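Question (not urgent): is this output format expected?
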Amino acid sequence: MKADIITIGDEILIGQITDTNSVFIAEKLNNSGFEIRQITSVADTKEHIFEVLDEVSKYTDLVVITGGLGPTEDDLTKQTLADYFGSKLILNEDVLEDVKQFVRNKGFTLNERNIKQAEIPDNCKIIRNKNGTAAGMWFEKDDTVFISMPAVPFEMKEMFEVRVLPLLKEKFKLPKVIHKNILTYGFPESSLAEKLSDWEQNLHSKISLAYLPSPERIRLRLSMICDTEEKAEKILDTEVQKLKNIIGENIFGCGAGFLQDSLAEILNEKNITVSTAESCTSGNIARLITSVPGSSSYFKGGIAAYSNDVKTALLKVSEETLEKYGAVSKEVVEQMVKGQLELFNTDYGIAVSGIAGPDGGTEEKPVGTTWIAVGNKEKIIAKKYTFGTRRLLNVRFASTRAMDNLRRFILGFDIN
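Got this back:
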């Protein structure tokens, strides 16, 4: 079964907001067995909406629409859909009661625009909305299902998961789609593809593979359409095991997590603690570590040691070391680890110092040069990296690399 997604709103087309709704809907539909044919953004005009609906309905079984259902004059979707499907708007008492209840719960006064929200095309199936005033609508025309939902993300998500998906599964006979996501770090995408070339060529014929890269990880998504979930799981598990045999040390998890989630599992399992001392990342590593629920059990604290004064006063980095080697050096990050281990009394520490950019580099230490040290009271390993010239990317690269280096240190893997 094929599905199209349409987002309505000038604010998307001019870049005023980011369309996250399509990402959510596409993932949910794909996991349910739909093939996403196309995602389209449409202006707030009746003519444009008509044109796109006519076009997509030729090729698809399902059209999911978000946007344009609000109470203001520029919200044209409901009237446009009524015209498109040859219906008229009538006041629906059930929807009106939902609207009244929502307005009461918010402590607002019901007004004419609120009441107008309860006017619904008379030939659609109503999809109730308990989180807002815009009801969803289900139309059918020439063997295609059209579903219109509000664009407010928390309203749309609840409506889609709780109300729409069950209806779709009743309406359509859908195949079972199984995904396995393997999370890797440490290879550029091209190098990883080369490393996995033989494995990929011999991959089970019913499995499709996608490389999904970002500065924080490369996610390998293995997907399989199947009749029985149990059989598919066995086939996928076999391929994943082969993958682990090839790049096991570079795999840090499965599913949707990041390195901070993997690190949390390791620290909790081993009942050990960590602290951070950051210069160029200025607290970003601590932020990532503490973004995981329950991090207070293993993270004691961190210092954003941006200036040399802080490095010397709090982390006991010697002035002689700073003078001789500079703040961005092996010797300094090693002393930063030692200083934080003593200050926070943790089992392990991470230290980072670098030139994030866009200026500040030299011929000897160009922009992007970063030293990362991880270790404990017995051993410290420091490595130098050159990430690039883009400041915010350098912070992301350094933060992720630092967490992976600590993961590798604790597990006894080599640090690259």
